Amino acid sequence: MTILVTGATGFVGAAVARLLLAEGEAVRVLARANSDRRNLQGLAVEIAEGSLTDRASLARAVRGCTGLYHVAADYRLWVPDPEAMRRVNVEGTDALLAAAVEAGVSRIVYTSSVAVLGLHADGRPADETTPSTEADMIGPYKRTKFQAEALVRRRIAEAGWPVVIVNPSTPIGPGDVKPTPTGRMILEAAAGKMPAFVDTGLNVVHVEDVARGHLLAFAKGRIGERYILGGDDLALRDILGLVAGTVGRKAPTICLPHGLVLPIAALAEMWARLSGREPFATVDGVKMAMKRMYFTSAKAERELDYRHRPAAQAIADAVAWFKANGYLA
């Protein structure tokens, strides 16, 4: 059977495609005509050219497929045009899944994010039931992912769409060609360009464990359920310390207050609008860092037999890949 993977030119989608191929599946990938295809090099995949904003291309891409992994998303913490992000993350998701259902695709895994989940003020790990509202969402990425997952859940309830939802936390590891915002942080830290940090925390997971979680959700997940695919909860100080240890640098020790970093991020965004280049810090990013974004994967471990390797291994593999591919001197 043929499986369609969206986002396979990107970080998580490429890991999913590689794992499917290793499992002996026939894989088709949706890729824009002008996309960076380095993550597809050497992979025996069929390429269907198209985009989430081109409905005709979506109908062609899903034709003859029995399964779909919809991993693609516009993942940026700052965008000059938030409406463009909504067209991809919300309208594109709805159009793709509708086309897949119409084409007879029997099972779909939709990649949401832990960004749509609620957080506990005291830093306790959140789970799939921790409540959140759209008003809690900071920035266009979180907002559009929240809207997209809500739409998918509504389609499941009202139209019976055969969708299992997965919510990855913060994946790192090999293949981060862009790189992602988290990958940029790893790079900056490895290069010694992050002498200070803010008091926050993340759930860090190896990208290959996230990919395995996708396949487990496809095979074992319950329709309409969401599953957090996470790893270890770590303070940012400890993440940067692990990166520093991997490259033999001294770990940063200066903790900056959020109130000091906010105006710096605002200035960075102003310069980004003038220069057209992505800012090195964003106001939304600083606001998100005011809470510890900790999560538990207990449900996925219980229902899917999901497992994850230590965060230190994920960080080491990410740094090794960046070095091997010329991102680090």
Question: Explain this structure to me?
Answer:
The chain has 329 residues and is α/β, with parallel strands linked by helices. The protein has a domain of 219 residues: NAD(P)-binding Rossmann-like Domain (Rossmann fold), CATH 3.40.50.720. The chain is built from 11 helices and 13 strands. It has a 7-stranded parallel sheet, sandwiched between helices. Strands 7, 9, 11 and 13 form a 4-stranded mixed sheet that branches. A two-stranded parallel sheet has the order 8-12. It is globular. The model has no long low-confidence stretch (mean pLDDT 91).
> What is the terminal-to-terminal distance?
43 Å
Task: Give the amount of beta strand, in percent.
Answer: 15-25%
Identify low-pLDDT runs. Answer: none
The share of residues in helices is 40-55%
**Architecture of the domain at 2-175 and 204-233 and 296-310 in CATH?**
3-Layer(aba) Sandwich
CATH superfamily of the domain at 2-175 and 204-233 and 296-310: NAD(P)-binding Rossmann-like Domain
Using the coordinates shown, work out and report the CATH topology of the domain at 2-175 and 204-233 and 296-310.
Rossmann fold
Which structural class should the secondary elements be placed in? alpha/beta
Number of strands: 13
* H/E element sequence: EHEEHEHEHEEHEEHEEHEHHEHH
